[in-house]
């Protein structure tokens, strides 16, 4: 047989069962051989004292009673016997497998794989393990209509059909030697039927490298292609005018801000099309970098747009841009506008009268047309899907693109996840910032907390209270916020001005409340998570988060980032009586560090790479064996090697690799 032969011609597989293989993406013998298990059932014997109720494991013991089979009629029966492991005697039961009785010999040692039932001190048997297959057996991802045993049999049949020798090596010798990787054919055998732990480990290392290397090859190819094809437009602006504007700001840029700005401006000036991710921790000052880039665009006679995830943020950015650039025509586009107002904005946007625009999703609706859009920026980019960013981009003719994110991603992961982008990082905070002191308190301690806050308030502090989060229910969130608001009003009395902010308010109301808090008319702001991202009130110094364990790490980090934005000492109080271990752990980590990168890594460990930062939205492929978090080191090496290949693409072995990676198909 040949590798390309359809699976249906394999011994034991017919046209009908072939359909079930198809569902797993297996159509020919090669596909089958490369369909690797995602884990292995460990058949090493365990002590029953360490087993948990319901756990599946192998228990080895001496058979102390003869096998007894009871028949119930209709072909149903039960095989039972007892085994002794150290001082424990365990009942073992198998249902409807009477023939196993032959394998149970009184006084002999036996290994039974099964499910542990703690209360009965019994093992519900699933398999008797022969001495020969101790070690482990593969477990494959399945879909309906397919059984593990069927798949294993088919793979065995494929090996029997002797097609393995036709599988070609797809990594060059120099890589195999440099990283001591197992040859491909050997690895395939050891992936399915490892002879021992070490063989399995080496096979896995080889397969992961292969997977990540070709992933990186494709990313590099994509990047090169885009660089070549994507002639963007040159945005030529008056550098002196820009510098003057920068000098007039109330503060100097930090070195990291300046570096990021320079990288952006140099992309904009070139005819290379900018596609850049700007990362910076909460409060690192991304906004001013964005505004100066927008200003440069306007100086060159083009329009620029800033898209943000919430209305509050849109209003805040529009106001701050207008005060930085009073001479410009800057518009705000959100969904709640009056018809006439919206119409006027759309008209002026199309005519080019509006030079900068800030908005929410409203910006990407139909009917929003620009005169000539030169630069598109998205803030908190992970809140937007790939499609939405694309729609905004298509409102112009190949505008430059800048995406900002405050949820920092470890660098390599960022480059990987957003591999066709360039990355700028703001890795320092503006001068004069003090560390935010973070405390975790229990609900019982609220009286003390309130007493302390009352004192802070007499010192003119401004305080946020975040009400508990009720998943999926905005209505309950609101109820919580209202309850908290009345409690605090009752507690602090009329001396303290308290405002309430939530998602269901009308725009003007939200606006008015935020304005009052900004101008310190309000001392306390009780809010739902609507203020989670971006909100900037430098004078606020205390953040109290109720039921903090209901929030994820990155959300807590964002919320805490609402304070510590000025030069005054700031505090975050996490009020929580966590019921889960992970809740407890999150509180501890928050108290320990304020570094967004460390928190992001912890979050990554706790939740896995797919869940966070909208990585899933970013069009990442799913990996068969590799894992971006745990195989980080391999990923980094694979990236280096892929870069090397594209540095000298004409070398024969490199040319061959580039061809190989094209064979593997493109992803979108
Ligand atoms: P983020 O990166 O979280 O979006 P912002 O851009 O909102 O941060 O900036 C946070 C605060 O720091 C704002 O009040 C801003 O005016 C201030 N800020 C930004 N850059 C500097 C700087 N170089 N020096 C002092 N303050 C700055
Ligand atoms: Mg921001």
TrEMBL record:
Residues 445-610 form the Helicase C-terminal domain. PROSITE patterns: HELICASE_ATP_BIND_1, HELICASE_CTER. Residues 267-426 form the Helicase ATP-binding domain. The keyword Nucleotide-binding applies. Belongs to the helicase family. RecG subfamily. Plays a critical role in recombination and DNA repair. Helps process Holliday junction intermediates to mature products by catalyzing branch migration. Has replication fork regression activity, unwinds stalled or blocked replication forks to make a HJ that can be resolved. Has a DNA unwinding activity characteristic of a DNA helicase with 3'-5' polarity. GO terms for biological process: DNA recombination; DNA repair. The gene is recG. It catalyses: Couples ATP hydrolysis with the unwinding of duplex DNA by translocating in the 3'-5' direction; ATP + H2O = ADP + phosphate + H(+). Keywords: ATP-binding, DNA damage, DNA recombination, DNA repair, DNA-binding, Helicase, Hydrolase, Isomerase, Nucleotide-binding. Pfam families: DEAD, Helicase_C, RecG_dom3_C, RecG_wedge. GO terms for molecular function: 3'-5' DNA helicase activity; ATP binding; ATP hydrolysis activity; DNA binding. The keyword Transcription regulation does not apply. This is ATP-dependent DNA helicase RecG.
């Amino acid at each position: 047989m040949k590798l390309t032969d359809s699976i249906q011609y394999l011994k034991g597989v017919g046209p009908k069962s072939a359909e079930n293989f198809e569902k797993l993406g297996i159509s020919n013998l090669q596909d089958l051989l490369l369909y690797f298990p995602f884990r292995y059932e460990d058949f090493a014997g365990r002590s029953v004292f360490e087993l948990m109720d319901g756990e599946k494991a192998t228990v080895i013991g001496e058979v102390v009673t003869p096998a007894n089979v009871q028949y119930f009629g209709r072909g149903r029966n039960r095989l039972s016997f007892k085994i002794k492991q150290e001082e424990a005697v365990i009942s073992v039961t198998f249902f409807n497998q009477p023939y196993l009785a032959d394998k149970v010999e009184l006084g002999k040692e036996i290994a039974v794989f099964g499910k542990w039932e703690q209360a009965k001190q019994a093992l519900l048997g699933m398999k008797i393990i022969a001495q020969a297959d101790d070690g482990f057996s593969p477990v494959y991802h399945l879909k309906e209509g397919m059984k593990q045993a069927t798949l294993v049999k088919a793979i065995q049949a494929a090996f029997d059909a002797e097609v393995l020798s036709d599988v070609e090596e797809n990594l060059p010798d120099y890589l195999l030697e440099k990283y001591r990787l197992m040859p491909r054919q050997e690895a395939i055998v050891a992936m399915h039927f490892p002879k021992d732990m070490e063989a399995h480990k080496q096979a896995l290392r080889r397969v992961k490298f292969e997977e990540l290397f070709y992933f990186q090859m494709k990313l590099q190819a994509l990047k090169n292609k885009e660089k070549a094809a994507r002639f963007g437009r040159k945005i030529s602006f008056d550098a002196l005018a820009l510098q003057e504007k920068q000098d007039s700001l109330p503060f100097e840029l930090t070195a990291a801000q300046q570096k990021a700005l320079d990288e952006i401006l140099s992309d904009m000036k070139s005819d290379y099309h900018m596609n850049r991710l700007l990362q910076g921790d909460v409060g690192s000052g991304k906004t001013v970098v964005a505004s100066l880039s927008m200003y440069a665009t306007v100086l060159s006679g083009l329009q620029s747009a800033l898209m943000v995830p919430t209305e509050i943020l849109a209003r805040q950015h529009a106001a701050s841009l207008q005060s930085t650039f009073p001479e410009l025509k800057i518009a705000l586009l959100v969904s709640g506008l009056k018809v006439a107002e919206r119409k006027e904005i759309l008209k002026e946007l199309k005519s080019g009268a509006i030079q900068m625009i800030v908005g929410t999703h409203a910006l990407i609706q139909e009917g929003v047309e620009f005169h000539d859009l030169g630069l598109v920026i998205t803030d908190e980019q992970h809140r937007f899907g790939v499609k939405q960013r694309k729609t905004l981009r298509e409102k112009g003719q190949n505008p430059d693109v800048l995406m900002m994110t405050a949820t920092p991603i470890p660098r390599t992961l960022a480059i990987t996840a957003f591999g066709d982008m360039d990355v700028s990082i703001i890795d320092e905070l503006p001068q004069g910032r003090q560390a935010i002191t973070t405390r975790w308190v229990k609900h019982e301690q609220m009286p003390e907390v309130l007493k302390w806050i009352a004192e802070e308030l007499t010192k003119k502090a401004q305080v946020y209270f975040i009400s508990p989060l009720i998943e999926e229910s905005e209505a309950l969130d609101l109820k919580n916020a209202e309850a908290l608001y009345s409690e605090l009003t009752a507690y602090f009395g009329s001396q303290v001005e308290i405002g309430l902010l939530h998602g269901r308010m009308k725009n003007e109301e939200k606006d008015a409340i935020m304005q009052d808090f900004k101008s310190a008319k309000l001392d306390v702001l009780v809010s739902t998570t609507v203020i989670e991202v971006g909100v900037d009130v430098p004078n606020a110094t205390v953040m109290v988060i109720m039921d903090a364990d209901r929030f994820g790490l990155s959300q807590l980090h964002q919320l805490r980032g609402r304070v510590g934005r000025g030069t005054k000492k700031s505090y975050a109080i996490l009020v929580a009586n966590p019921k889960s271990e992970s809740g407890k752990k999150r509180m501890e980590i928050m108290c320990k560090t304020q570094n967004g990168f460390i928190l992001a890594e912890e979050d990554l460990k706790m939740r896995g790479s797919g869940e966070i930062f909208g990585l899933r939205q970013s069009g990442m492929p799913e990996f068969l064996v590799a894992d971006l978090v745990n195989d980080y080191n391999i990923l980094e090496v694979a990236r280096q090697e892929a870069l090397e290949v594209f540095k000298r693409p004409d070398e024969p072995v490199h040319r061959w690799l580039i061809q190989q990676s094209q064979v593997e198909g493109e992803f979108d």
